[in-house]
Amino acid sequence: MFRPRAQIRPRTYPPLLFHPLGGCGEIGMNLSLYGYDGHWIAVDCGMTIRQDLPDQPLQIPDVDHLAAHAMVPSAVFITHGHEDHLGALAWIWPRWNCPVYATPLAIEMLRAKFSEQGLRVDALKPIQPGARVAAGPFGVTFLPVTHSIPESCALSIITPRHKVLHTGDWKLDERPLIGAPFSAAQFQALAPVDLVVADSTNADVEGHSRSEAEAAEALESVIRECRGRVVVSCFASNIARIKALGAIAERTNRRVALLGRSMERMVSIATQLGYLDDFPPRVPANDLGYLYAEEVLIIATGSQGEPRSALSRLSQGRHPALDLLADDDVIFSARAIPGNERPIARLKAGFKRLGVNVHDEHTDPALHASGHPAREELRQLYRWLRPKMLLPVHGEASHQQAHRELASTMDIHVPQLAKNGVVLSLDAETLVPSGTHHLRPRLIASRMRPGERTNPVSARRHDKSLSIALNVLPTATGWTRIGQMIWDSEISLPLDEDALADWLDERIDAITAETLLQLRQQLFGPLREWLHERLPVSLEIHLQLMPADPQPEYEVRTAP
Ligand SMILES: [Zn+2]
Ligand SMILES: [Zn+2]
Fold first, then answer.
1. Measured between alpha carbons, how far is 221 from 474 in angstroms, rounded to an integer?
2. 148: CA distance to ligand 2 center in Å?
3. Helices of type H across 50-98
């Protein structure tokens, strides 16, 4: 009989580390890092709008400490196209300079933001739902889920030792209007998982979320009763809702117009990806005045009371293309995001003053379909996944707590309620804190919002500009600045020239671009950010890079 001569000791594996930088104890700004054996990946990179601060700045996650702790991710995985999951990436990516994997719709949204910031877009890698990507010791599979934007995915994250499911945002929708219904099989195939990192948004809501198809039916029955113009306000990213409105317009003999830049932009991306193939031809906003009231269906952004939106102008009778009159109807087909109650109430009061009928989640609850799972859906997913442990994220503390209670009724262990900045360590048996990093709020003035430079206010021609010209010299690894910096502006600026020169030197030395064009692309966005943070006025910025050796501008630099 065979007897081992030496005792075989179980091999020891490193723990899996989980480090959330946003999204825990708050809704918005999701960013989670996973680390294993010295390798790190990031999941999502979202932003939040600080409604509570003057001028409503953007907040992005604080990632300053990552470099010093060797935690810079080598790949980013984006679960879906919502701003709270990808809105900060164009600001943060230049520090990471790594591949970004996402489904095509999210990639197109990122492409627009990256281009806007002057970043190169070749790091953006479109992935089809179902595909698997290897990143160091991690195997990451994109599992399609239903949510309020197409192509949303949960991520199965596998290391040599661990099986984690990061749910992203999801709901269990059997009639999603775009994309396949929620599939149980792909989750049953994963069971049992060690850990599920899970959407807590509606963990305190009993029951089941409404299907997108039901919301569309409710919209249609309200619109059928309308006699005048109809304005429906929804989120631009809810492409299924927009598609449904196109079909409803055709069935109710109305012509469709879109109002709002972000609506135009999303519809153009969705059309390009084939999601709106049967969408009816759109009427230009300026032609709306020529149509009979009962022929008009307008789809508009601005449901959150954004002060400069088309909807807000309509409510004040100040829209250049259209006046709403008594017996026209405005339908809010989006839930009020907490914190926006006041501007939304102002908006609705404006419509009521004009005699316009207002329909919303209070008059017709079926108009809204949440994109997040209520408790019945959470239980269903966990029956399929059979997780050993659960970590509630994507929610305020009360949602995380409700999620923990639900899990405990299913005998799923919730060892921790994650907080932003903490590092949790997962071994075979449990999840324990292994460190904390203090995070500072990183705010960006909202006038610099990536992707929104074309909105009516900021698209107004800048009457002030600043031109900067630099001489740069190729080095072994990139470029360096030499000689005098020249800057020129029609107005006097409180600009600290030395600080700018120091910042430019440090920045240019750190960029490993091969060509002047690449250097300019990587320098311009951060330069604009740096200047906007320090100057009291919004300026149009011109950056000219002049090669110090005799090569034409933008030509590919050959190796010495
Ligand atoms: Zn979200
Ligand atoms: Zn979402």
1. 66
2. 7
3. 83-86, 89-96
pLDDT band at 28 (very low <50, low <70, confident <90, very high): confident
Superfamily of domain 212-363: Metallo-hydrolase/oxidoreductase (3.40.50.10710)
Task: Of 439, 521, 479, 434, give the one whose Cα is nearest residue 17.
Answer: 434
Identify the nearest ligand to the CA of 153 by its number.
2
Q: How many CA atoms lie within 13 A of 193 on its CB side?
A: 28
* CA 39 – ligand 1 centroid, Å: 25
Write out the two tokens for 235: 């989120």
- Type of residue at 22: G
Phi (first) and psi of residue 291, to 5 degrees: -95, 150
Q: What is the per-residue pLDDT for 6?
A: 60
Query: In angstroms, rounded to a whole number, what is the distance separating the alpha carbons of residues 334 and 352?
Result: 19
CA dihedral 216, 220, 226, 227 (to 10 degrees): 130
Structure-derived torsion over alpha carbons of residues 95, 97, 101, 107, reported in degrees to the nearest 10: 80
Quote the ligand 2 centre to 456 CA distance (angstroms).
Answer: 26
Q: How far is CA 320 from CA 149, 289, 295, in A?
A: 31, 10, 19
Least confident segment among 28-32, 383-387, 514-518: 514-518
Using CA atoms, how far apart are residues 108 and 271, in angstroms rounded to an integer?
12
Domain borders along the chain are 16-207+371-444, 212-363, 461-547
Query: Where is average pLDDT lowest: 38-42, 351-355, 457-461?
Result: 457-461
**267 CA distance to ligand 2 middle (Å):** 18
Angle, CA 144 vertex, CA 143 and CA 145 arms, to 5°: 115
Number of Cβ within a 10 Å radius of residue 236: 24
Q: Which fold has domain 461-547?
A: Ubiquitin-like (UB roll) (3.10.20)
Q: Give the tens place of pLDDT for each residue, 355-382.
A: 999 999 899 999 989 999 999 999 999 9
Q: Is residue 406 within 8 Å of 199, Cβ to Cβ?
A: no
**pLDDT confidence of residue 257:** 97
Distance 86 CA to ligand 2 centre (A): 10
pTM: 0.78
Q: Which residues contact 81 (CB under 8 A, 6 or more apart)?
A: 102, 103, 105, 106, 109, 149, 151, 152, 237
CATH architecture classification, 16-207+371-444: 4-Layer Sandwich (3.60)
Strands in 479-489's sheet, in edge-to-edge order, are 479-489, 465-474, 540-547
Cross-strand pairs, 374:
none
Confidence of residue 10 (pLDDT cuts 50, 70, 90): low
Q: Which ligand is nearest to the CA of 395?
A: 1
Closest ligand to Cα 28: 1
> 387: Cβ–Cβ under 8 A, 6 or more apart, which residues?
165, 192, 193, 194, 195, 196, 412
